[in-house]
Automatic annotation (TrEMBL):
Residues 59-86 form a coiled coil. Transmembrane segments: none annotated. Gene3D superfamilies: Winged helix-like DNA-binding domain superfamily/Winged helix DNA-binding domain. Residues 88-107 are annotated as: Disordered. This is Insertion element IS6110 uncharacterized 12.0 kDa protein. Keywords: Coiled coil. InterPro entries: Homeodomain-like_sf, Transposase_8, WH-like_DNA-bd_sf. It comes from Streptomyces violaceusniger. One of its GO terms (biological process) is DNA transposition. It holds the Pfam family HTH_Tnp_1.
Length: 107
């Protein structure tokens, strides 16, 4: 379950827009808006990555895709463990040596 959001959804967009359009330092904009400067710095970096201006971070779309792939991989691992456990009795049956019944001579 994700952590509750500390800031309203509109605030990051507004803060990033202000930093990018005014070229004011992040710390000053953050102080004016009453947010932590490192939170704003992260928002700005993410906005730059989403705009293709940075290649040292994943875009929001890439983050979402990575999250989905990790969830899918975990689900496949769980399914694989279930299938292994369910097939174990059959594997034991196949591994047993088969013996031929002995013939009794009728003499």
């Amino acid at each position: 379950m994700p952590a509750p959001r500390k800031y309203p959804d509109e605030l990051p967009e507004r803060a990033v827009r202000e930093v990018r359009t005014t070229s004011r330092p992040i710390a000053h904009v953050a102080k004016d808006l009453g947010i932590h400067k490192e939170a704003l710095r992260g928002w700005v970096r993410q906005a730059e990555a989403d705009a293709g201006e940075r290649d040292d971070r994943l875009t929001a779309a890439e983050h979402e895709e990575l999250k989905q792939l990790r969830e899918e991989a975990a689900e496949l691992r769980r399914a694989n463990e279930i299938l292994k456990a369910a097939s174990a009795p059959f594997a034991q049956e196949l591994d047993r040596p088969r013996t031929r019944p002995t013939r009794r001579s009728t003499a």
